[in-house]
Amino acid sequence: MKFIDLAQKGINRPVTYVMGMLLIFILYFLGSLGILVDLAVNFPGLAIESLDQEFYQTMGHNRFFFWVLLPFLLVFIGLLVHLKKMHRRPIISAFTSKDQFRWKRFFFAFSIIILVMVTIMGLQIYVDYVQQTKVFTFQFQASKFFPLLALSLVMLLIQTACEELIFRSYLLQGLKLRVQRTGTSILISSLMFGLMHIGNPEIQAMGYHMLVYYILSGLFLALITTVDDGLELSIGFHFANNLTAAIFITTDWQVFRTDALFLSHESPGNGWSSILFMLVLYSSLFVLFKRKYKWPSWKEIMQSM
Known about the structure:
Elements: H1 14-42, H2 53-59, H3 61-85, H4 103-131, E1 136-138, H5 142-179, H6 182-196, H7 201-206, H8 211-228, H9 232-247, E2 249-250, E3 262-264, H10 272-292, H11 298-304
Parallel strand pairs: 2-3
Antiparallel strand pairs: 1-3
Helix pairs in contact: 1-3, 3-5, 4-9, 5-6, 5-8, 5-9, 6-8, 8-9, 8-10
């Protein structure tokens, strides 16, 4: 059975999906209370609304980073339990149509994105060094960076796996069960994924047109998940993307403000170059995956939509 159709194997009453969505919101809300409790007990003078330089210096980037990612841990565990107990589905069916998680696919996608992102960032830093524009500041501090690295390897993997589980598995499979059309299910889940990022600092800094970036990202991840019958490639891609953003270069206006290796002083701009680059990258990756994993022809893929 195709991955997108695996919801048919469990209990699929509408109330079960409503309960699942409510569980996601409740657990995320409960996880978000952690930072408020921490602030009230340990930093009574800080306001979460400010998020200025003083806020990060007082609380610490790693501490704040942990609290931002904690809700995803609760949602990830809770949703898996819900799938097992309420939907009566095997846990593996939430990740792949195969009998086992295909780790080689995960690591291949992860490695490709790490290579691409680090190469591009490295070139940007090299050009900045040669031209002496001083856009990037090297800010490595072992006492801060290595805890960040350990935190990122664990919590960002959970965070990205959680988002893939929600949008490219639970919602995508549930939508297919209701609307009976793969293409429509992919489109709706991608729009929901994009709108989830509407509160990100990047959107506020560059403009609401940057939602296109997240919607197209969701579309790409949903497409490779559907064609490849599993989340392995999408989790590997998503994890590598977020990991490089967290540990390599940080800015004062992105969602992950961390003690990364480099701090960029570059203004956010309008983001159109990022969207153009993304279109080229996603198209190239799809062709690469298609050839490596011998996916169906373009005609067959379109017919299945």
